[in-house]
Specification:
Layout lengths: L40 H11 L5 H10 L1 H8 L33 H24 L6 H11 L8 H13 L5 H9 L2 H6 L13 H10 L17 H10 L3 E3 L13 E3 L9 E2 L8 E2 L6 H9 L3 H15 L6 H17 L5 H8 L2 H4 L11 H11 L3 E2 L6 H14 L29 H14 L5 E2 L3 E4 L2 H5 L8 H12 L6 H11 L6 H12 L4 H19 L8
Length: 557
C-alpha cells in the first residue's frame, strides 16, 4: 500500500473552479440531545452519506420528505437476509445460476482452483451489489463496520467467508456481546488468529490478545510492565488457556457432508481454572468445557471499558476521528452508558448518535474523507451507472468495483492487519491516509473512465448512465439555478460559495446567457424525440458534473 502523505483534508485537491471553503472542525460542546433543527436536503444528505454508501436523488428526496425520525426508522429496520451469491458460470460442481454456498468443491485439483476463483469473484461482487442496491438502510454500512472491527482474510473455502458475512449481517444492529461470542468460535476467526491451533499442550495467545486489545476493552494507558490498565499480559496468557479446545473442520474438500462450523474437542481443552490479574479481580476462573468461552466473554463485558471502547469506534466511523475531552464527556460516556443500559444491543446506540444534535452540528458536516468503498460505490449509486458490456457478465461489473476500491486501499477481506484499516484508528492521519499521490490518481482515473466519450469501468468495460434522466426527476428541472443546486445537494456535504456556483454555470453554458438552459430544456420537453438536443444537454451536464467530481468537496462527507 502506498505511503500516505500528510495532506490537509480540504487542500489535497485543488480544482480549477474556485477556492475550497475553509475546513470545519467538529464542535465539542453539543451532545446526544435529539436534533430539533432544520430538516432540509443538507441534513438528509449528511445522514445518508454517513449511514449508507452515498445518497441517490431518490433516497435524498424520500428522506427529505419523510423527516428525520422516519428516516432513522428505515435506516435501522431489520431486513430479511439477501439471496445468497450465485455462480454465473459452472464452477465444476455448482451449476451456473445457482448458489455455490450449498455446494462443496470438485475433487479434481485443477477444477478446484477454478472453483475457488469463481466463488471469490462471486462473493466480492455480491457484497458490492448489495451496497449499490441498499436503498435507505444502514445494514451494509454496519456490516462493513463490523468487518473492520473483526478484520480477517478471504479463505480458499469461501463458504467460510459467506457464513461469517452472514453472521455480521444478522447481528448488524444486535447484541455486541453475543456477536463477540459467536465470532470467537467462527471458523474464519479461528483460522485467522490461530484459535484452531490453541490446545492444552500448546496454548496460542493470538486470539486472546486481540479479544482484549481490539475486540472488547482495548488497551488503556500502560501503567506498568505488561499492565495496560484494562488488562495485563497475565490475563492474555490465562484467557488463552480458557479458549483452548476449538478447531475448524476440514472444509476445503469434495465431501459436502463435512460441516462448515467449528467443533469443540474436550481433549484439546485446558480444564484447569486459570488465575486472572487484579484487573479482573484476581479471580480463579474455572473451566466449564464447551461453554467456557461464553462465560469468559461475559466476564470481560462486566468492565465498563467494553462499552466505552465500542462507543469510540462508532463515533470515529460515523462522526469524526478526533475525540476531545468534551466529546468524551458529552458523547462517548453517554453512548457507553446507553449501550450498557440496552444490554449491549447496538441499534439504539447508533440511532441515538445519528439522531443527535452533535451529529447534525453544522461543523460535523463535511470533515470526513470518503473511504474507497464509499467513493467507488457512491459514484455508481449517485449516477445510476449500469453495466452494458455484452461480453462480460454483470458479476464482473461489481467485481471490478472491488478491484478499484482495493487498489485505493480498501478491499473486502484485505485489511492490512487484524487491527483493520488504519484510517479508523491510526494517529495522526486517520482518514487523511486514504489520500496520497497514488490513490488520488486512481480516484481521478475512475472519473476519467466514467466521463469519457464511451463510459467505462476499468476491469469491466462499457457502462452507461444518463445525467439528463436524473435531471428529469428534479422538482424544477427547467430552472437553471434550482437544477444546479440539486446537483450540489446530491454530491456535496454542504452548500458551496457563490463563486463556485457561478463557475459551474459557466461550465454548463460556456459564454451563453443563463436563460439558455431553460429554453433548451423546454424545447426538449416539447420535442422529446429530438435526440440531437438531448445529446447536447447530456454533454453539457457531463461537463459540469465531471468538474464537480474533481472538486475537493466531492471527496468529503
Amino acid at each position: 500500500m502506498p505511503t500516505p502523505t500528510t495532506l490537509s483534508r480540504r487542500s489535497f485537491l485543488r480544482p480549477h473552479l474556485a477556492p475550497a471553503a475553509a475546513p470545519a472542525m467538529v464542535s465539542s460542546a453539543s451532545g446526544l440531545e435529539p436534533y430539533t433543527g432544520p430538516w432540509t436536503k443538507q441534513e438528509a444528505g449528511h445522514l445518508l452519506a454517513r449511514a449508507t454508501f452515498g445518497a441517490t436523488f431518490e433516497t435524498l428526496r424520500t428522506a427529505t420528505e419523510q423527516g428525520l425520525e422516519a428516516t432513522l426508522d428505515q435506516l435501522l429496520t431489520e431486513l430479511p437476509l439477501p439471496t445468497p451469491p450465485i455462480a454465473e458460470e459452472d464452477d465444476g460442481i455448482t451449476p451456473a445460476g445457482e448458489s455455490w454456498t450449498e455446494y462443496a468443491y470438485p475433487e479434481n485439483v485443477g477444477e478446484r482452483i477454478v472453483a475457488v476463483r469463481i466463488r471469490k469473484n462471486s462473493f466480492r461482487s455480491w457484497l458490492n451489489k448489495l451496497r449499490v442496491e441498499e436503498g435507505i438502510s444502514a445494514r451494509e454500512t454496519m456490516v462493513l463496520f463490523w468487518h473492520d472491527h473483526f478484520a480477517n482474510d478471504l479463505y480458499q473455502d469461501v463458504r467460510w467467508n459467506y457464513l461469517h458475512s452472514t453472521l455480521l449481517r444478522e447481528n448488524a444492529f444486535g447484541d455486541f456481546r453475543q456477536l463477540v461470542k459467536d465470532v470467537t468460535v467462527d471458523p474464519v476467526m479461528l483460522a485467522f488468529l490461530n484459535g484452531n491451533q490453541n490446545t492444552v499442550r500448546r496454548p496460542n495467545e493470538n486470539y486472546a490478545r486481540e479479544l482484549l486489545e481490539l475486540f472488547t476493552v482495548g488497551k488503556g494507558p500502560q501503567v506498568g510492565p505488561g499492565d495496560y490498565t484494562n488488562y495485563t499480559e497475565e490475563d492474555v496468557v490465562a484467557m488463552a488457556r480458557s479458549l483452548t479446545g476449538w478447531r475448524t473442520q476440514r472444509t476445503f474438500a469434495s465431501d459436502v457432508t463435512l460441516p462448515l462450523t467449528a467443533e469443540f474437542v474436550p481433549a484439546r481443552h485446558d480444564a484447569e481454572a486459570v488465575q486472572l490479574s487484579p484487573r479482573f479481580g484476581s479471580i480463579q476462573f474455572p473451566s466449564t468445557g464447551e461453554t467456557t468461552y461464553q462465560r469468559l466473554v461475559d466476564l470481560i463485558f462486566e468492565k465498563d471499558a467494553a462499552a466505552e471502547f465500542l462507543a469510540r469506534k462508532l463515533y470515529r466511523w460515523f462522526v469524526y476521528y478526533e475525540i476531545t475531552d468534551a466529546v468524551e464527556a458529552n458523547v462517548i460516556q453517554p453512548l457507553a452508558a446507553l449501550l450498557r443500559a440496552n444490554d449491549y444491543v447496538v441499534g439504539p446506540v447508533v440511532r441515538t448518535l445519528l439522531g443527535s444534535q452533535h451529529f447534525f452540528d453544522v461543523q460535523s458536516q463535511g470533515p470526513m474523507i470518503k473511504h474507497p468503498i464509499q467513493y467507488v460505490v457512491g459514484l455508481v449509486r449517485q449516477f445510476a451507472v449500469i453495466p452494458v458490456n455484452p461480453n462480460n457478465p454483470d458479476q464482473q461489473f461489481y467485481n471490478a468495483l472491488f478491484v478499484r476500491a482495493d487498489q485505493m486501499g480498501m478491499g473486502d477481506f484485505r485489511a492490512p492487519s487484524v487491527s483493520g484499516w488504519p484510517a479508523f484508528y491510526q494517529e495522526p492521519l486517520f482518514y487523511r491516509s486514504w489520500i496520497n499521490s497514488s490513490t488520488l490518481a486512481l480516484r481521478n482515473k475512475m472519473i476519467n473512465n466514467l466521463f469519457r466519450r464511451t463510459p467505462g469501468i476499468q476491469g469491466y468495460g462499457v457502462v452507461d448512465f444518463s445525467l439528463l434522466a436524473l435531471v428529469r426527476q428534479f422538482p424544477d428541472p427547467v430552472a437553471l439555478w434550482p437544477m444546479i443546486d440539486e446537483w450540489v445537494s446530491l454530491l456535496f456535504p454542504r452548500p458551496i460559495p457563490e463563486g463556485q456556483r457561478e463557475a459551474l454555470r459557466e461550465l454548463l453554458l460556456p459564454g451563453l446567457p443563463e436563460t439558455q438552459w431553460s429554453v433548451e430544456y423546454a424545447t426538449l420537453l416539447a420535442n422529446p424525440n429530438d435526440e440531437g438536443l438531448a445529446t447536447s444537454l447530456e454533454n453539457n451536464l457531463r461537463r459540469m458534473v465531471r468538474a464537480m467530481t474533481e472538486m475537493p468537496e466531492y471527496q468529503l462527507i
